[in-house]
Amino acid sequence: MRAAAEALGVAPAEAAAAQKLAGDAGTRCYYRLPDGPTSGGRTSGRRSSGRRSSGRRLLVTYPEPFTPAQRNWTAIRLALAESGVRVPELFADAPEAGAALIEDFGDRDLAAELGEAPPVARAELLEEAEAILPLLRQVSLSAASRNPRFDAEFFSGELAQTRHWLLEGGGARPLSSSDLALWEAVSRELANRAAGRDGTAVPTHRDFHANNILRAPDGRLAVIDFQDLRLGPPDYDRVSLRFERGGTLVDSDPSAYDEAVLLQRAWKVVGTFAKLLSWGRRSYRPFFEAACAVIRAHTRPSSDFAPLLRFLPEDAGDALRV
Q1: Residues of the chain with CATH 3.90.1200.10
Q2: pTM for the whole structure
Q3: What is the DSSP letter of 223?
Q4: Domain covering 2-103, topology
Q5: Residue 213 pLDDT grade (very low, low, confident, very high; cuts 50, 70, 90)
Q6: How far is CA 234 from the centre of its chain?
Q7: What are phi and psi of 63, to 5 degrees?
């Protein structure tokens, strides 16, 4: 972290006092710097602005220099800001050091707001968050095309990862030939229908849930973790918001959303959390169990995708050996 701080122009005393935060599901590391002004840093990389900040700042490190994730974050952040979406300020960018200095919105996300709000106010909070989506969908096509679009092949690949980590224990428990044939047939149809028709895709955050939406100091809801933005089905971000994390505190009618998009996203999320749990990251177990509950609750008995329910574990510990 010392080299990253030097590349960003962060004073040694500030770097020494930085607090390392719990990481997300990715490979980035976050360090909260002490409150105080910053000049934006001395860096051989790009800077998004020369603004001074007296607020909180995060020093972000990537696993290596010049990663696509850092390039995407920087380019997509600018495109979102130009579209009117509140995103963190970028004070300094040093891709050659795999580091950036960004605005820190703190730890209280929309999930916390939803949990503390009276029931009558929760629906309003979700509506406030959904109001971000029309702005997000105005980002340039070039920004939305930095990542591969959501199509049937992409969705099938995600469901293959779910099979690998959830059903097969990371390869330790291969499915029988009959179970594999059933999973492949139904999951392929789910992916095809979730992808939808050509020409309907819109810019999509990809992880538009309540832990990635925070209240900025100016009072607006802001979006983070947007480096995977891409073209996808119109309902994708809406079901992520309403059927994951804190969004489940509000009763939402699943029939108002594309069934295949809702279920593909939920099965993908279950697979992601199964992988993280297999790596010993036990803090994700409640999210895993919640995603399983969403699948059970919103797969109709008459649904074409109901056969997948036989693969859903009744108990996370038994399924994942955790």
Answers
A1: 110-320
A2: 0.91
A3: E
A4: Phosphorylase Kinase; domain 1 (3.30.200)
A5: very high
A6: 16
A7: -65, -20
